[in-house]
Write a structure and sequence with these properties.
5-stranded antiparallel β-sheet
């Protein structure tokens, strides 16, 4: 069963055609143990989260956040000759709180959420925005996606091969506080969002969805579900006919007692990338640290702020 599911993921996720078949260079030596991505280079003592690979296969967009996790900035870094470049702020970010970026398979368009004003009017919530990339690699001024708007927050847009968008939202009409919603893309416009309903959504909060290109596999970051072990947990569901099976909690090492969220799968279905604030502070150490060692731990990845992790995707299917 596990092998067949993995083969399905490999076949379907490669529908993101512009991306390379492997992320091995970006996320080297992935195995059963979650690893911090590029320690002290991309994942540092700061708060980093929400990695998203651009379809050129060597550029990583991610977030640099305040420690209180209430202001987000989209940055990017390029991998050349095995070395990551110094992160730069994305051209459309840096002034307002911006997060959760994702790209169409051809790299011509980005979607992200932002608290920036809409039509000159300030907003207290996160809305979905889009920006187009021209042949020279320049990004357009972001445009508010009005069809997906609500008076409440929208989070973590993610796309299928046919342009359908999945996202989290607090809008009315759901099963809990925050639910997963879906909107079809028809004639160049998103249709009215529909709630995925049970069993994907619950009385808890389902906040961030990753959807496979063929819309057959869904990974959800949620909180306050009955079998949760941390503040945010990751769950996996598969399509059954026109609905979904009950999202499964994969347990450790994917989930921890902390925050585990921002799910992404590589196009070949082999590498799972996520964000976690798991750190060294929850368990006793095997020995007493020197002061210098303590300082390095407190100022480096794993200090309790969020970091980017990756692991073999087989850990989702155990």
């Amino acid at each position: 069963m596990r092998t067949s599911i993995l083969l399905t993921l490999v076949a379907t996720l490669t529908c993101h055609a512009a991306m390379p078949a492997s992320w091995d260079a970006l996320f080297p030596a992935s195995d059963a143990t979650p690893k911090v991505l590029a320690p002290d280079v991309l994942s540092t003592g700061d708060d980093e989260s929400h990695a998203s690979v651009f379809p050129d296969g060597h550029t990583l967009y991610f977030l640099k956040n305040t420690p209180s996790f209430d202001f987000y900035t989209i940055v990017y870094s390029e991998l050349h000759d095995g070395k990551w470049s110094r992160p730069q702020i994305a051209p459309f970010s840096g002034r307002h709180s911006d997060a959760d970026i994702v790209f169409t398979a051809d790299g011509r368009r980005a979607y992200f959420v932002s608290a920036r004003p809409v039509d000159g009017q300030p907003r207290d919530d996160m809305e979905i925005w889009t920006s187009e990339r021209d042949a020279r690699g320049n990004w357009s001024e972001p445009r508010h996606v009005q069809e997906l708007s609500s008076p409440t927050d929208e989070w973590f847009p993610t796309l299928t091969a046919d342009g359908t968008i999945y996202f989290g939202s607090d809008r009315t009409g759901g099963a809990g506080g925050t639910d997963i919603w879906r909107s079809r893309f028809v004639d160049g416009k998103f249709q009215p969002p529909e709630n995925l309903g049970a069993p994907v959504n619950s009385k808890g909060d389902e906040i961030e969805p990753f959807i496979a290109a063929d819309e057959q596999t869904l990974i959800v970051a949620a909180r306050n579900r009955g079998d949760a072990v941390g503040a945010y947990d990751l769950y996996v569901a598969h399509r059954r006919g026109t609905g979904w099976d009950t999202p499964r909690h994969p347990g450790p090492p994917i989930n921890s007692s902390g925050w585990d969220f921002a799910p992404r799968l590589s196009p070949d279905g082999k590498i799972f990338v996520f964000t976690s604030n798991r750190g060294f502070g929850s368990q006793p150490l095997d020995r007493k640290l020197t002061f210098d060692e303590l300082q390095r731990r407190l100022r480096g990845p794993g200090n309790g702020l969020r970091d980017i992790y990756y692991v073999s995707a087989e850990q989702l299917l155990r």
